[in-house]
Amino acid sequence: MALFNKVMAAAALAVAGVIGTANAQAETLRLAHIVPPSHVWHQVAERFTANLEKDSAGRFVTKISPQAKLGRDPQLIKLLQSGGIQFAILTVGDLSNRSEALQAWFLPYTFKDVAHAGAAARTPAAREMLAQLESQGMVGLGYTFAGMRHVLSVKPVTSPDDLRNKKIRSFPNEIFSDWWQAMGAAPTALPLSEVSPSLTTNLLDAVDIDLDAVVGLKFYQQAGNLAMTNHMAFPAVMGAYSAILGFFVPSGGGKWLIEAPYVMQAANELQAHLGWAVQVYNAAEALPNLINPFWMLPLLGVLGLKARDIVGFTFMQLLVHIPLVIGLLWLLGLTLPYVPPVMPTPAG
To answer: Could you tell me the pTM of the whole model?
Structure first.
């Protein structure tokens, strides 16, 4: 499970920067996904949380919310962007609606099996796709796969003609729709929770799905025919709330090394003053620290308090500072012209 290990290694790399004390109270983080506990992505979540707790010496514990308890992928993405949750396992299908480069994973028959797709996930191009999520307020830690996509149907499918004019549950994405329409089928976007009743009432004839979901959600009880088509890969991304890097990376300089290429690229594309972009980054990166300022630990020790006793006050002053700081950064940025970067040329 190379991709499984990649996600775990990403977590360990992040946690290596944690600065804490053995007596500090454990902080509870939240991780959410849309699949049932029997699915392999839930196993990835369990391994991730176990490694995080172990490598942080118990400073961080993570509560997992499976099976869309906190919402489907679009809702989880919003929660992740706002900090309502700190981690999520998100289908690349929904993420590709926000970063088009991720749609490359769905090109039909690009990958012959999961091992092939897993090898592609370790390439620089795949890492660049994850890096592009930074602009969406998320950090992509790695990929995980449940398997290839297959066709589960009420009646046997032995050739593409058997799916002509049949209603097939398809992921709500342009590439999926175009693919099934080209095959002569009628793609129908439905959440997984509605697939079983739709198969039972003949509102669906087939399902485009991975094997873990077939078994975990017991769709085989309504549709007993499985065609092992291997027509697409379907990865998920372990995503993290971008501000949580402030907890895991020990210094602003460490964060800057990770994020600088993408921040400066965005500044160039927007034709913003490059030096001011760095200052804006520094100011915005410091804002989350107002919830957990450097003086909190000694103050808690002196007064015999717990973090929850004062975090309400620190959060309130954060709410005051956010619009004030961002407003001033914006106003001052209007006074500085854009100067394109100049690459030095070698002498002689």
So the answer is: 0.68
Closest CA to 76 of 223, 238, 206: 238
Whether pLDDT at 74 is above 50: yes
CATH of domain 152-229: 3.40.190.10
3-state DSSP assignment of residue 14 = helix
CATH architecture for the domain at 2-149+234-248: 3-Layer(aba) Sandwich (3.40)
The yes-or-no answer to whether 2-149+234-248 and 152-229 have a common fold is yes
Proportion of the chain above pLDDT 90, given as a percent: 44
Beta-carbon contacts of 344 under 8 Å, excluding residues fewer than 6 positions away, are none
Question: Would you list the DSSP string of 117-165?
Answer: HHHHTTSHHHHHHHHGGGGGTEEEEEEEEEEE-EEEESS---SGGGGTT
Predicted confidence at residue 19, as pLDDT, reads 31
Q: Taking the domains of the chain in order of start, what are their residue ranges?
A: 2-149+234-248, 152-229, 252-333
How many angstroms separate the CA atoms of 118 and 289, rounded?
36
Q: Give 164-176 pLDDT, tens digit per residue.
A: 999 999 988 888 9
